[in-house]
Design a protein that fits this description.
three-stranded antiparallel beta sheet, 42% helix
């Protein structure tokens, strides 16, 4: 039996579908994604997160992710 994707997995899938398109005009900004739709672009994570809380409430699941053509890799030693 196949498992259904979680709401967060759906939001990540939506983000990946639109990453290249959004990067053309919103490179480096933070996108707010809720229920399979883009809900705004913001200059920093905190502003996007607070907007998500205001718009959807603290018990809703939403995604805030930075728009980058290539995902950065960080090494921690």
């Amino acid at each position: 039996m196949a498992t259904q994707p979680t709401s967060l997995e759906k939001e990540f899938g939506f983000f990946e579908q639109h990453r290249a398109e959004w990067a053309q005009q919103h490179q480096g900004e933070f996108v707010l994604v809720f229920d399979g739709q883009e809900a705004g672009f913001y200059g920093d994570y905190e502003t996007a997160f607070l907007a998500g809380l205001r718009q959807f409430g603290m018990h809703s699941k939403f995604l805030v992710k930075q728009v980058c053509v290539v995902e950065p890799v960080f090494y921690i030693y």
